[in-house]
Design goal:
Layout lengths: L18 H12 L7 E7 L6 E8 L7 H22 L14 H20 L1 H8 L3 E12 L2 E10 L2 E12 L2 E9 L1
Parallel strand pairs: 2-3
Antiparallel strand pairs: 1-2, 3-4, 4-5, 5-6
Helix pairs in contact: 3-4
Amino acid sequence: MAMDDLSDDGVSPPEWQSGSEREQWLQCIGKSVEKLPSYDGFLETQLSGMRVPFHVIRSDSTPWDAKQAYSLALLGARMSCDAIDIFRGRQKPAHVERILTEDCMRRLKIAASIIGHYMKEDANLYAKIGLLPINVSAINGWLTSTTKFECAALLNIGETRLRCNTAFRLKGSTWKCVLADFG
């Protein structure tokens, strides 16, 4: 059936019960979307001296400020680098133990043991992801509630581009990483 045939299928379009209902519908679909509060800024990197752009959005109406947005973007960037360093066997897990949940640390250690085996056997793989420093290119974060922050970081290890997604929960006064995923 061709697309033109659909208008001649013998089925009439739905009837509006009243003109008022049609007007309400048009108002609903024509509403402008309210913009969520967000902060944009830059993180300064220690290794390359580059400025890394960040964009953090808050999805609720709780008041917040640029300092909190900067701190969350920095947390996401550091955790992304630390997770990849643990994965490639370069970082001691004790460095981030206070931030990672036990389950997240366990999963990273399992992945590290698997990739470590392959890096010992493949010098090209080791040279590609095991030796070079991590450079952060951009950070996007979402504060989805007063106790949950999610972050996506765009990273490079040499010519290899990675995206690392992290999720944090506020436990007491500390943000704990409950998820670290990359590829």
